Amino acid sequence: MRLQHGFSLVEVLVTLVIFKIGLLGALLSQTIAIRQVQDATQRTISVALAQGLLNEMRANPQLSQVLGPRIDSDIALPSLPDCSVGASCTITDVAAVQAHSWLNQLQQYNRLSLQQPQFCLRSAATGVNLSTSWQQKSSAQSGVVADCAVGNGRSGFALQNGGH
User: Fold this and answer.
1) What's the chain look like in SS3?
2) Cα dihedral 124, 125, 128, 129 sign
3) Integer-rounded Cα radius of gyration of the chain
4) From the CB of residue 17, how many other CB atoms can be counted at a distance below 10 Å?
5) What Pfam families does UniProt report for this protein, alphabetically (predicted)?
6) Which end of the chain is more exposed for a tag (fewer CB within 10 A), N or C?
7) Residue 112: how many CB atoms within 10 A of its CB?
8) Cα(125)–Cα(80) distance, rounded to whole angstroms?
9) For 29-57, what is each residue's pLDDT tens digit?
10) Neighbouring residues of 134: CB distance < 8 A, sequence distance ≥ 6
């Protein structure tokens, strides 16, 4: 009788099934990691935009009146005032330029990675409260909600400006 060398077909199939299960587990973990990176990127962009807005409002309190209480990416850019060398600009004109610049930045991020962002300004005795929310990329649900609410696939946070 001759000695057999090598593997049987059943052993090869069992090895392939185990290998395939391991690859599927690695693929699942990669998918979860990509979702978490997308959510972290959206949160980072939102924090940067919110901090930028609060800093601009601290520098010029008229900005909150130009922007209004609720801001989303569909809002029209305000017209830029004529502040040439010969003409002087009022604080409201400067606020219009600030609003134009900030909203332009918001619209660019909306096209790139931040989906359906909303910013809500509320005046309080201690300063200005800024709430923001956005649609998560990993969520199948969509839709804009009132008052920057979170839930149903939307993430968000609130910041408080300690005064102007």
Assistant:
1) CCCCCCCCHHHHHHHHHHHHHHHHHHHHHHHHHHHHHHHHHHHHHHHHHHHHHHHHHHHCCCHHHHHCCEEECCCCCCCCCCCCCCCCCCHHHHHHHHHHHHHHHHHHHHHHCCEEEEEEEEEECCEEEEEEEEECCCCCCCCCCHHHCCECCEEEEEEEECCC
2) negative
3) 26
4) 10
5) N_methyl, Tt1218-like
6) N
7) 10
8) 31
9) 999 999 899 889 999 999 999 999 999 98
10) 42, 46, 114, 115, 116, 117, 118, 154, 155, 156
CA angle 164, 66, 162 (to 5 degrees): 20
Whether the pTM exceeds 0.90: the reply is: no
Q: What is the pLDDT of residues 51-99, one digit of tens each?
A: 999 999 888 888 888 888 888 888 888 888 877 767 788 888 888 889 9
**HEC string for 125-142:** CCEEEEEEEEECCCCCCC
